[in-house]
Write a structure and sequence with these properties.
CATH topology of the domain at 2-374: Ammonium transporter fold
Distance between the termini: 200 Å
Radius of gyration: 60 Å
CATH class of the domain at 2-374: Mainly Alpha
Order of helices and strands: EEHHEEHHHEEHHHHHHHHHHH
Number of helices: 16
Shape: rod-shaped
Number of strands: 6
CATH superfamily of the domain at 2-374: Ammonium transporter AmtB like domains
Strand content: under 5%
Low-confidence stretches: 370-378, 465-475, 569-589
Mean pLDDT: 77
Length: 646
């Protein structure tokens, strides 16, 4: 028995059992290879999906800290929205059957793509490899959508971005995939040979154009229509924006590099047989392309910018990975190195070009993933919109500057008024303190003047002939000096009261004192009546006590001596007789008690003043007597000396 294959190969078997054994072994080997391919595609799909974490880290590290949650939400919902939209519509448009080679027409929600029993192995309940390929393609679609997130960061609303992501994964990306990777796309290398573009089709092994260029151009268009961030371009010059962390950027780049091995190597879609050899080569070319691009971008940045930038290094690595993705399976390692260098140069040039055109791409997503230049129409539209936005911003800036100056002027005026009020209050307090100090400082001057006047008067008294005249003149001087001091004090009090009345606080204090005086005046009759009763009781007790009688007799004698002294100074005898007779005969005991009460009340009220005046008069009299006696002794000695020669 023999078995003939399609290629003409013939195998001879001795009997039928040998043929059946060969078929069984071959079927088991094919089934094992199918299972290995399924597992391989699932693992690579997981590595590609891990790139979502890398994109999130890169974008979070590039934006300001206040936009962190916005970036994370967009990256998470990119995967969710992409999975649902690609399952319902996108996968059918990408890999469904078609007659025009433009777009798929069947397989919506995976219903008509023969995912269940059948195909090569009828004993299997599902065709697991087809499910794994759907998972792998969904990870690619999510990657294409996430590229846009970094380019429009910090200025795109979340709802608008989700609509953008949905349209991208449900229509834009699936149509391009159908062109390049389906079995009947118009540019696919997997189409029948007679239907291929230029007879060979487009060789894009892992999606350099199908995935990354689609995402990059979409991001570029979004950045153009949204415009730059506020503060990115000031007076036509690009400004360095504050970003969150270079650490996040670097970690995100490393995660993306790791996920790229699943991206490129997994694009074999099989691991059995020669496919494993291709996967090994793809891993090496991917590594060399990324490394050469990273070094080249760093060197170029150092030459033109004067320092080594970690951002340039990270973006250079990503540019090299994107560049090598298309031909990683067909180029040699040396060519992979050259492709990485060219990719870094294109990235740096595109970054500078977009800066000159005032296009703000936060993570340089469009420069890394796109290789086509803008046409003239897009440039003109961009310049027109940029000019209108710049004029609007400049007018807004002028208004804000004017408002700021007005607020500053108003605040300065208010501060000046407050300072003037505080100065006036401080000056008023200082004047009040100075007035109080001046009044206290003038008192010693008045005392010094009074002392000098008393001294002059005592000198005149000493020169007088009789002590009685000296004593009387001393008394007159004391009275005159006391009168002058009282007059000076009265004038000062009047000036001080005038100043107090003119001040607001003084008026309040004066009104308060008037109210107190009125309240005291209302209570005055009751107080006088109580004081009169107490004095009467006190006088009665004094008259009854022995010491009280002696005190009364002593005061009577003092009064008599005062009356005699007044009579000597010029009182008439008639007045003395009348007063003496009135005092001796007509004065009743009640009158004497009243006089005693009045005298005691005066002593209680003016005790301190009388004691002070008495001490001063006593000191002055003692000094005058001593000086008079000294002069008299000197005159007596002169007279005795003059009489001795005679």
């Amino acid at each position: 028995m023999s078995l003939t294959f399609k290629d003409g190969t013939v195998l001879d078997f001795q009997n039928q059992s040998a043929l059946f054994e060969y078929i069984r072994v071959t079927a088991d080997t094919a089934s094992t290879a199918y299972s290995m391919d399924t597992v391989w595609v699932i693992i690579c799909a997981g590595m590609v999906f891990l790139m979502q974490m890398g994109f999130a880290l890169v974008e979070v590290g590039t934006v300001r800290i206040k936009n962190t949650k916005n970036i994370l939400v967009k990256n998470m919902l990119d995967a969710c929205i992409g999975a649902l939209s690609f399952w319902l519509i996108g996968y059918a448009l990408a890999f469904g059957d078609t007659t025009s080679g433009f777009i798929g027409t069947n397989g919506f929600a995976l219903k008509t793509l023969d995912m269940r029993r059948g195909g090569e192995f009828n004993d299997r309940p599902y065709q697991g490899k087809k499910y794994a390929i759907f998972l792998f393609q969904w990870a690619f679609a999510a990657t294409a959508a996430t590229i846009v997130s970094g380019a429009v960061a910090e200025r795109c609303k979340v709802i608008a971005y989700f609509v953008y992501s949905f349209v991208l994964t449900v229509f834009v990306y699936p149509v391009v995939v159908h062109w390049g990777w389906s079995d009947n796309g118009w540019a696919s290398a997997f189409a029948p040979k007679e239907d291929r573009l230029f007879g060979v089709g487009v060789i894009d092994f892992a999606g350099s154009s199908v995935v990354h260029m689609v995402g990059g151009l979409t991001a570029l268009i979004g950045a153009i229509f949204l415009g730059p961030r506020y503060g990115k371009f000031v007076e036509g010059k690009a400004q360095t924006m504050v970003f969150q962390s270079s650490t996040f950027q670097t970690l995100g780049t490393l995660v993306l590099w790791f996920g790229w091995y699943g991206f490129n190597c997994g694009s074999t879609l099989t691991i059995a047989g020669a496919a494993s050899d291709v996967a090994g080569k793809v891993a090496v070319t991917t590594t060399i392309g990324a490394a050469s691009a990273g070094v080249t971008a760093t060197v170029i940045g150092f030459i033109f910018e004067g320092h080594i930038s970690i951002g340039r290094t990270n973006n250079g690595i990503l540019a090299g990975l994107v560049s090598i993705t298309a031909g990683c399976s067909v180029v040699d390692v040396e060519m992979a190195f050259l492709i990485g260098v060219i990719g870094a140069i294109v990235y740096y040039s595109a970054s500078k070009l977009l800066t000159c055109l005032h296009i703000d791409d936060v993570v340089d997503a469009s420069q890394i993933t796109s290789r086509k230049e803008l046409n003239n129409q897009i440039r003109e539209e961009l310049n027109r919109k940029r000019g209108a936005q710049q004029e609007e911003r400049s007018s807004t800036t002028r208004v804000k500057e004017l408002n700021r100056k007005r607020r500053k002027k108003l605040n300065r005026k208010r501060r000046k008024e407050l300072n003037n009020k505080s100065r006036e209050e401080l000056n008023r307090k200082r004047r009040k303190e100075l007035n109080n100090k001046s009044e206290g400082a003038q008192q010693p001057e008045v005392e010094e003047l009074d002392r000098k006047r008393r001294k002059k008067h005592s000198t005149r008294v000493e020169r007088s002939s009789t002590g009685r005249e000296g004593r009387s003149s001393t008394t007159r001087v004391e009275r005159s000096s006391t009168t002058r001091v009282e007059e000076l004090d009265r004038k000062r009090r009047k000036e001080h009261s005038t100043r107090v009345e003119r001040s607001p606080t003084g008026r309040e204090e004066l009104n308060r004192k008037k109210l107190n005086n009125k309240s005291e005046g209302a209570q005055q009759p009751e107080v006088e009546e109580l004081d009169r009763k107490r004095r009467k009781e006190h006088s009665t007790r004094v008259e009854r006590s022995p010491t009280g009688r002696e005190e009364l007799n002593r005061k009577k004698l003092n009064n008599k001596s005062r009356e005699k002294l007044k009579g000597r100074e010029g009182r008439t005898s008639t007045t003395r007789v009348e007063r003496s007779s009135t005092g001796r005969v007509g004065r009743s005991s009640t009158t004497r008690v009243k006089e005693l009460n009045n005298h005691s009340r005066k002593e209680l009220n003016n005790q301190s003043k009388e004691e002070l005046n008495r001490k001063r008069r006593k000191e002055l009299n003692n000094k005058s007597r001593e000086e008079l006696n000294r002069k008299r002794g000197a005159q007596q000695e002169e007279k005795e000396g003059a009489q001795q020669p005679e």
